[in-house]
Write a structure and sequence with these properties.
The structure holds 2 protein chains of 2 kinds.
Chain A (H helix, E strand, L loop, with lengths): L2 H16 L3 H20 L2 H4 L5 H5 L1 H13 L1 H9 L1 H5 L6 H21 L2 H10 L4 H26 L5 H17 L3 H8 L4 H9 L2 H9 L5 H25 L3
Chain B lengths: L2 E12 L2 E12 L3 E5 L6 H8 L7 E6 L2 E2 L4 H7 E4 L11 H11 L4 H14 L15 H13 L5 E5 L7 H15 L3 E6 L3 H6 L2 E6 L2 E6 L1 H5 L8 E5 L4 H10 L3 E6 L5 E5 L6 H10 L4 E6 L4 H9 L8
Parallel strand pairs in B: 3-8, 3-9, 6-7, 7-8
Antiparallel strand pairs in B: 1-2, 1-4, 4-5, 9-10, 11-13, 11-14, 12-13
Classes of the chains: A mainly alpha, B alpha/beta.
């Protein structure tokens, strides 16, 4: 594993987002949606509490829609244009390429997330929030975004078509979020064995993000997202290797 | 070490299709190997296996002594590769693209700028360095790919149809560039443009249906042509039928056939050179020669007879 190669690939991929208007459009939509969900859906003002819980708690739902849009191009475009043949005949390993591209998408997501800082300024202007909680929630959200991105990156490698990559990633992300959603759990808990229900809900992003969005950083939640990222990226590398020349 | 590429019994099957089936050859420093064959013969598949993009079904590839299966990174570090169609990152500029390649190739500091500039100059793309690659013409895109492949001055160069889509001037420039680099590299060029056999190659490998059909010099390839060393001759002051009978009676002549409006084409026995002898015999008879010239082999005809032996391909 050559860190320099990962860095160069990440840098190229990250700049690639800004080569077209896509990056700017995405960031604007992201900010509009976070604003909308915080103020209208999350009732930021009506709650009358100086925290960003309404902001963070909506993130799993926003990410379902938006993260596949970031990840869909990672490998699908490379395969469609044929540049994958160039990349894979440069002296880099598949893992370096997978990690480099993933980190680029993650950094881009981090940037979009960071651009919500006016919200943080607002809440600090209006009250005295626990900024430690906000920082922890921010990092937790970023970690969860990494989970979504790893799924999206892996799915992007199975097709040359970005739209297909987007739709499949969205559905899988939805499954990972919904498996912890109250209605779904209730549906299973009526008849399924308790351990099965717990297993299904323990795979959910919601279950692990809920505590994080309240600023509670639990090692188990962290490990969940980290292992999720590792597993999906590993699968990603295997798929790239198997399908690069198709 | 002069042996740079060693390929032994290389094969690639896609399901039941044998794209490449037991190809063996080697390339040394200073050689430009022209890789010929019809479309779908397995040229690109072979190149993809040499560069480590495709995993062979069987056989071995060694580049500068490194095995592509056990040490693909070393193989890739030692070669420059222009894939078919010269793919690149379309939204980048050639400058950004070449810098990225230089970074990945481990070229650092001031050397990086120098390597990018030198490759751009040699591939003649200095005037488009800051335009997005997607806006460039086909010829420029091809040359950006070429610049990418020679950037790190690799000992081995694999070029898949480097002159495809270029105009005659650009073709000439690319051939000049390849000839300039030929001395200290081992180069494989795939092409189906037969004039490049003479313009570029020191050796040719012809493949068809995944198998090597010919491996030798361009001269040897030409000598397989039935036109090789044939002589076209026309004489003024003798009746044509009599002249034909005379030609057929000569001991070194295998076959005579009339050429439309310009005398006869005389095929020698065993491909020997007969120009001098023939002109001497004609002079002995006191005839005056209107035209007399030896023909080169016709590569298109050789190409067809090698790659499609069962279709009775003639000229």
């Amino acid at each position: 594993m050559n860190i320099r190669n990962i860095w160069f690939i990440m840098k190229r991929e990250f700049n690639g987002y800004f080569a077209t208007p896509v990056a700017y459009v995405f960031i604007i939509i992201f900010l509009l949606l976070t604003g909308f969900s915080t103020f209208y859906v999350g009732n930021f003002f009506e709650r009358g509490e100086a925290d960003l819980y309404p902001f963070f708690s909506m993130h799993p739902w926003l990410y379902i829609l938006l993260i596949p849009a970031i990840s869909m191009r990672l490998w699908a475009e490379e395969r469609k244009s044929g540049s994958i043949e160039l990349l894979m005949t440069l002296p880099v390993s598949v893992f370096e390429a997978v990690i480099g591209k993933f980190l680029a998408a993650w950094a881009f997501t981090g940037l979009a997330l960071f651009l919500n800082f006016p919200l943080w300024i607002t809440v600090n202007y209006l009250g005295n929030p626990d900024n430690g909680v906000i920082v922890a929630s921010f990092l937790g959200s970023l970690l969860m975004a990494g989970g979504f991105l790893a799924i999206g990156s892996c799915i992007s490698a199975i097709t040359k078509n970005q739209v297909i990559a987007f739709v499949i990633s969205l559905i899988i992300s939805l499954v990972f979020v919904l498996s912890g959603y109250g209605i779904v759990i209730d549906f299973f808990s009526g008849w399924a064995p308790k351990t099965l229900v717990e297993t299904v809900s323990s795979f959910s992003f919601l279950t692990h993000f809920d505590a994080i969005s309240k600023g509670v950083i639990d090692m188990r939640d962290m490990m969940y997202f980290i292992s999720l990222i590792v597993i999906w990226l590993f699968a990603n590398a295997l798929i790239v290797n198997a399908r690069k020349a198709d | 070490m002069t042996l740079r590429i060693e390929i032994d019994d290389l094969a690639k099957y896609f399901g039941a299709i044998k794209a490449v089936d037991g190809v063996s050859f080697s390339v040394s420093k200073g050689e430009v190997l022209g890789f010929l064959g019809p479309n779908g013969a397995g040229k690109s598949t072979t190149m993809k296996m040499i560069t480590g993009f495709l995993t062979p079904t069987r056989g071995t590839v060694r580049v500068c002594g490194y095995d592509v299966l056990t040490d693909p990174i070393s193989v890739k570090a030692h070669l420059g590769y222009l894939p078919e169609g010269a793919p690149a990152y379309a939204d980048m500029t050639p400058d950004g693209f070449l810098k990225f390649i230089a970074e990945i190739r481990g070229i650092k500091g001031a050397d990086r700028r120098r390597a990018v500039d030198s490759a751009a100059e040699r591939a003649r793309i200095t005037n488009v360095m800051y335009q997005p690659i997607e806006t460039l013409s086909k010829g420029y895109k091809r040359r950006v790919g070429l610049a990418q492949s020679i950037l790190h001055n690799p000992p081995v160069l694999i070029l898949d149809e480097p002159t495809d889509g270029l105009d005659p001037n650009q073709k000439h420039e690319v051939r000049t560039l390849i000839n300039e680099m030929a001395e200290d590299k081992a180069i494989i060029i795939s092409t189906h443009i037969l004039e490049e056999v003479h313009a570029l190659c020191t050796r040719n490998v012809v493949i068809a249906n995944g198998k090597v059909k010919f491996d030798g010099t361009p001269q040897e390839l030409e000598s397989k042509s039935r036109y090789y060393n044939a002589v076209v001759v026309n004489v003024a002051n003798i009746e044509q039928n009599a002249f034909e009978t005379f030609l057929k009676s000569l001991p070194f002549v295998a076959q005579v056939e009339p050429v439309e409006g310009a005398g006869f084409r005389v095929y020698p026995k065993d491909g020997q050179q007969i120009t001098a002898e023939l002109s001497e015999k004609i002079r002995e008879n006191g005839w005056s020669i209107d035209a007399l010239h030896a023909e080169a082999g016709r590569l298109d005809e050789v190409f067809r007879s090698i790659t499609m032996p069962n279709t009775g391909a003639k000229n």
